[in-house]
């Protein structure tokens, strides 16, 4: 099995190499890709600290600590019994398990773009034909459901979607999600729905979970975005299909045994107490609205960057009118004097776009300073001070 990055992880490596100070553990660039909520400290989540009598043996349940799974069900509003939730080491782990269980060599999958690159890479590795459905800016970054229906066939075993969507911030309504499930249902396909940004909607209304709507729906998520706890490595998958969940659990044994870190489970359990979780999300959204307002104001009058306003996820995917490919522009922006970090749209299969994130972990001053640097870059480019072309080295071109 060969893993071939489709560029997104390559650019994340470039950004980190150029913009992250390993010793000081902080960004040295204006970090405008951040999709995460506020990062909470251990002291805020567990004011009394980790209980010193916590036993560090292997965990008791193959599926994850049952009270934690109950807390996941309540906070994520799954209409499911506890047996239908499997604790994992993050959304990436959940997506991996679900895709490996659902797909076989020679199958087909319908995979949206722009989106998370993991399913496309795994399909390629598994010799599964990933049929690409494009989200369209003219549809508010939704995909065309008729087009999806026309792509479906008995060979299609998985439809993968991510909503709220990375990178566009588009959300699906319950009716749209049901329509996707109907298409899948006609052929018995699974809908793997990456819902890592659920809870971070600007309307305050959580997006619907596929696990509540379809017997072959698999919802995957974690605390990495909503609570900025990507370092915890704790996530889950939820599905009505117990047989499918069993197979994921069996597969999990061969990656990470049936274990979860007890430390991670303890912290996650505290954070997922429903009233605590609500309070942490409210704080996150309050802080996030400040950055959202700054970026919205900038976009409203911008002559070069234009967006379809996102509906959630602290992310956006604006188009720009400048004669330079997105990979080259983003590389140059990382360099002095701009020192600003955006992700090229080409990493998502869309040239002429960039991913711009403004999660509340990035201070408002950094957002303002980064946007000023983009303006400076645009002015320099228009003045002929920057020439197009891959003059700047990158890992891919090196
Ligand atoms: C859409 C999406 N899925 C999965 C992941 C990985 O998340 P986790 O930290 O929960 O493994 C990310 C992280 O950036 C993401 O944006």
TrEMBL record:
It comes from the Bacteria. Coiled coil: none annotated. Its cofactor is pyridoxal 5'-phosphate. Its EC number is 2.6.1.-. GO terms for molecular function: pyridoxal phosphate binding; transaminase activity. Transmembrane segments: none annotated. Gene3D superfamilies: Aspartate Aminotransferase, domain 1, Type I PLP-dependent aspartate aminotransferase-like (Major domain). Residues 59-374 form the Aminotransferase class I/classII large domain. Keywords: Aminotransferase, Transferase. Belongs to the class-I pyridoxal-phosphate-dependent aminotransferase family. PANTHER family: AMINOTRANSFERASE FUNCTION, HYPOTHETICAL (EUROFUNG). This is Aminotransferase. It comes from Candidatus Segetimicrobium genomatis.
């Amino acid at each position: 099995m060969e893993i071939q990055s489709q560029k997104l992880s390559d650019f994340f490596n470039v950004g980190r190499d150029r913009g992250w100070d390993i010793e000081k553990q902080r960004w040295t660039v204006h970090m405008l890709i951040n999709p995460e909520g506020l990062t909470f400290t251990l002291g805020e989540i567990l004011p009394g600290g980790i209980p010193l009598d916590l036993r560090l043996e292997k965990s008791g349940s193959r599926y994850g600590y049952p009270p934690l799974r109950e807390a996941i069900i309540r906070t994520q509003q799954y209409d499911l019994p506890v047996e239908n939730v499997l604790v994992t080491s993050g959304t990436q782990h959940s997506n991996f398990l679900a895709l490996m269980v659902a797909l076989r060599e020679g199958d087909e999958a319908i995979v949206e773009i722009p989106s998370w690159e993991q399913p496309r890479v795994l399909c390629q590795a598994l010799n599964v034909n990933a049929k690409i459905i494009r989200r369209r800016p003219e549809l508010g970054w939704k995909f065309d459901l008729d087009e999806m229906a026309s792509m479906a066939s008995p060979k299609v075993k998985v439809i993968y979607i991510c909503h709220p969507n990375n990178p566009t911030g588009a959300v699906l309504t319950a009716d749209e999600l049901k329509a996707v499930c109907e298409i899948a249902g006609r052929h018995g396909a699974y809908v793997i729905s990456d819902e890592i940004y659920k809870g971070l909607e600007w309307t305050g209304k959580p997006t619907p979970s596929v696990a509540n709507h379809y017997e072959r729906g698999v919802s995957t998520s974690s605390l990495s975005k909503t609570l900025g706890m990507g370092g915890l490595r704790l996530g889950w998958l939820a599905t009505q299909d117990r047989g499918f969940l069993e197979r994921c659990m069996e597969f999990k044994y061969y990656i990470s045994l049936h274990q979860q870190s007890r430390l991670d489970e303890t912290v996650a359990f505290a954070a997922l107490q429903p009233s605590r979780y609500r309070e942490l999300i409210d704080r996150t959204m309050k802080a996030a609205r400040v950055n959202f307002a700054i970026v919205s104001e900038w976009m409203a009058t911008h002559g070069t960057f234009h967006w379809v306003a996102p509906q959630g996820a602290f992310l956006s995917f604006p188009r720009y009118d400048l004669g330079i490919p997105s990979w080259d522009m983003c590389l140059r922006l990382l360099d002095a004097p701009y020192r600003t970090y955006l992700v090229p749209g080409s990493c998502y299969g869309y040239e002429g776009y960039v991913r711009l994130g403004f999660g509340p972990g990035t201070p408002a001053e950094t957002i303002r300073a980064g946007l000023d640097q983009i303006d400076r870059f645009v002015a320099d480019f228009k003045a002929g001070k920057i020439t197009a072309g891959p003059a700047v080295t990158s890992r891919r071109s090196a």
